[in-house]
Amino acid sequence: MKNFFYAAGLLISGLCFSQEIPSKIKVSLFDGIAVAGYVDHGAFINFTGPNVSINHKHIKFILGMLPSLRIKEDRSSGTKNSSIMPTLGAGLTIVYKRIAFQIPAYYNSKTTDQNGSWKIGVGLGFSFK
Fold first, then answer.
1. Structural element, H or E, at residue 10
2. 80/90 Cα distance (integer angstroms)
3. What is the pTM of this model?
4. Residue-wise pLDDT tens digits, 26-43
5. Who's near 60: CB < 8 A, 6+ residues apart?
């Protein structure tokens, strides 16, 4: 009876832990991707930030936050904002081999003459990892 329990224990532990399948969905803080692109009559440069990613063959889909520098001339009358501003966006990045294609969304806050709104852009970049 004692040998039976030993054999059953080995069998169960072998089935449960010996062949773990790695998860395809991963969470990371930085993926080593730099992207430059266009949004709302200006440019942006970003590096993918905290995200959730899924790999499928040679394609990686990333949905996450995009810490960015937005480069846009302020055309308002009176006092003007800086042309380069740090901002946070969110969006989808698709990486094929080392080339990254990105669809970011940035929020423009309310001003005296415009309501706050989300602006969609497009970007192209490179994956260092």
1. helix 2-17
2. 26
3. 0.73
4. 877 777 899 999 998 889
5. 53, 54, 94, 95, 127
